[in-house]
Amino acid sequence: MTSDIKYSPITPNGIKEEGTKDPPNKAKSPILKWCLISISLLCIIAILFTQGEKMASKVEIHVTIHHNNDNDASTTNSMMRGSNSNMNNAYSLLNTEAEDINIDTLIPKCAKNIYVTLHKEIIDDTNEHSCKGMLLRDDLLLTTNECSKYTFTFDFKGAGEQLAIPHPTLNAKMINSKLGFLQVNPPYHYQWIDSPTRRTRMFVSLQSTIVDDEENGSKNKVILSCTTDNKPIAHNFLSLDDDTMIPLTELHDILLNNNEVILWEHLDLYTSSTLGNDHGLWWSKSVRLDDEEAYTKTVLQDYVGPIGTVSLPMAHYGSYVKQVAAVLEAVDPRGHRKECFLNYYKRWQEEKPFSGVKFFDWLDYGNGKGILDRNMELIKAGGDILFEPMEDDRKCQDKAFNTHKVHYFDQPQRDFHEVYITPSDDNTELIWRYKNNDERIPESDMSNPHLYMWDMNQTFYIVDSRWKEKKYGPIKHTSVLDGVPALSGGKAYFGKNGASELLK
Q1: pLDDT tens-digit series, residues 17-50
Q2: Which of 19, 61, 326, 334 meets the CB 3.0–4.6 Å disulfide criterion with 312?
Q3: At what angle do helices 289-301 and 320-331 cross, to 10 degrees?
Q4: Nearest-5° angle of CA 497, CA 502, CA 503?
Q5: How many CB atoms lie within 10 A of CB 384?
């Protein structure tokens, strides 16, 4: 069969005539075919790579990570204000032009739990997750000015879902600022039973940049950074509306003038005390031993009554440290643990160097937690010990100490046990009745008498044998009046019909 396709050679000027095709080259080898295919593939890859570079140039996220503790990472010293400051993680953001940024990837590990996503209570047309917050304290969230106008919820490790509402006092001072505040109302942290406070979760920096590249001295803005001992430092707040870094410098005057207790990088970073539990870390300003002991003396005086009265300190007259230990049971913010405070208080006093932490914080969240257990283990191992053992150290180890508690009455419970006294009809007996229901005091057993307290206002309280110890815990005389002085207290023996037989 004859083909109707004509082939035309190249014209003298090197241009092929229109409508013609190259004649087939019957001698073309398979090797030559594979070469041509390979060249084509390389051209395609080059085109894709060029397009990829163009797309990547639209977003430039610079992340610098300093791993001072990891064996497989280099150690880098970042410089702040001309002085050395080791950063465990420092995340910085440069020219960001993308609309959607996963801001969580820019938050270092030490701040993951305190840089939170805010969820609006009432969902509108705006992006629900566009608002973020820095938890400066358990009750104080830093956010943008726009976000500070709404009510949100957020999840906080160990405390569950929290409600955050606009902070009217602080926001009134932030009218011309891009920043704003939300207030939160979680449970208080107690350093003494009557001393509620808030846990401080991060340090605020007045330096919005850190030196990242020591060779060329370039400065990069960072949101948060971590020290080698996991202290989070807030440098800037990232506005997701316009992708700009907002320095925190203006917060210094605003928070100081409002008497807000905040930890500052330049003032508190190297002197603050680290505390923590299973849910995270927090920091407190360092305290002096002399100041703490002076405060303890004032607390002690609140529990000392006139000569001849019943009081916790006078029960240990002659030993100041035993008097303090007795009162510590009454002011214990975590359940009125008993009998072992002497063993812990002396170790807190004598620790070298002094911890800089208030006693109860040291005991439950600082160096004092488990300190008797650790010392007993060292004694068993025959190595160097932390301190010489005291009597009862063994029975006062952590598990026993935190389990054995005394129940202290609140005011409603005291009211329930208040009694009044009237003479019998024949004037031969004193009849005791509970004031709340007129019920006569039940008969007692000689081996199981009732407990009585007579307070400084001459009010009597009787706790009879029906007290539910399994439900509420054991009690003692001083715990009925919350440890404060009383005119008298002891055992009360009763016969039938509420008639008293003996107070002892």
Answers
A1: 344 344 444 444 555 555 555 666 655 555 555 5
A2: 326
A3: 80
A4: 115
A5: 6
